């Protein structure tokens, strides 16, 4: 039941039912802290899921950021700064930075995580694909339309080959690519 609560919370978030997602993911996070402790990988995943749900509400973005900072710091202590889980958490934290209009910090965090993920787990790993998609978004926001398009093309190609044409990573990369192609025209 503990892990199912996170799955339901993530589903609510993807369906746009943010209040329900936050409620379930907060409960899941607190239960994980109690059951496993703050530094356990399941608790850390719960922490970042909770932070990601919070970022969907403008009024909750401060808490989203502090929760993500806490998660990244705990990942670093528990697994090291170059561990793929730590790097994936940094990519999630960068999304929160971007929605908080801290574009330069988001870009630096995504560039660092993307390069480290390419080196540690390879370009076809889901974490690397997500980092590439986010980095392309950063570049688009920074008005680097050509750089965004180039990264989006690469992310789409890799995601399509490694994840399949209907996977959510592939679809996200395709959506970015379409927007980036329009911006370059």
Defining key terms:
single chain; 185 residues; mainly alpha; 9 helices; globular
Compute the average pLDDT: 95
Strand count? 0
| Overall helicity | over 70%
Tally of helical runs: 9
How widely separated are the two ends?
Answer: 50 Å
Percent of residues in beta strands: under 5%
Uncertain regions: pLDDT < 50 for 5+ in a row?
none
Largest sheet: none
Question: Which structural class matches the secondary elements?
Answer: mainly alpha
Radius of gyration: 16 Å
Overall geometric form: globular
Reading the helices and strands in chain order gives HHHHHHHHH
Notes on the structure:
This protein is mainly alpha-helical and 185 residues long. It is built from 9 helices and no strands. It is globular, with a radius of gyration of 16 Å. The chain starts with a helix and ends with a helix. The mean pLDDT is 95.
Task: Furnish the topology, listing elements before pairings.
Blueprint lengths: L1 H13 L3 H19 L4 H14 L6 H19 L4 H16 L3 H18 L5 H16 L3 H19 L4 H17 L1
Helix pairs in contact: 1-2, 2-3, 3-4, 4-5, 5-6, 5-7, 6-7, 7-8, 7-9, 8-9
């Amino acid at each position: 039941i503990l892990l199912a609560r996170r799955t339901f919370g993530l589903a609510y978030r993807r369906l746009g039912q943010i209040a329900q997602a936050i409620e379930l993911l907060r409960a899941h996070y607190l239960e994980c802290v109690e059951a496993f402790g703050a530094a356990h990988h399941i608790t850390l995943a719960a922490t970042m899921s909770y932070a990601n749900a919070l970022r969907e509400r403008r009024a909750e973005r401060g808490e989203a950021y502090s929760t993500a900072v806490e998660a990244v710091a705990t990942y670093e202590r528990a697994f090291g700064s170059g561990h793929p889980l730590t790097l994936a958490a940094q990519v999630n934290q960068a999304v929160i930075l971007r929605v908080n209009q801290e574009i330069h910090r988001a870009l630096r965090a995504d560039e660092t995580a993307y390069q480290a993920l390419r080196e540690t787990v390879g370009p076809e790993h889901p974490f690397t694909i997500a980092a590439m998609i986010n980095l392309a978004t950063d570049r688009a926001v920074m008005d680097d339309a050509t750089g965004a398009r180039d990264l989006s093309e690469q992310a789409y190609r890799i995601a399509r080959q490694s994840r399949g044409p209907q996977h959510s990573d592939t679809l996200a990369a395709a959506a970015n690519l379409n927007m980036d192609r329009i911006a370059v025209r």
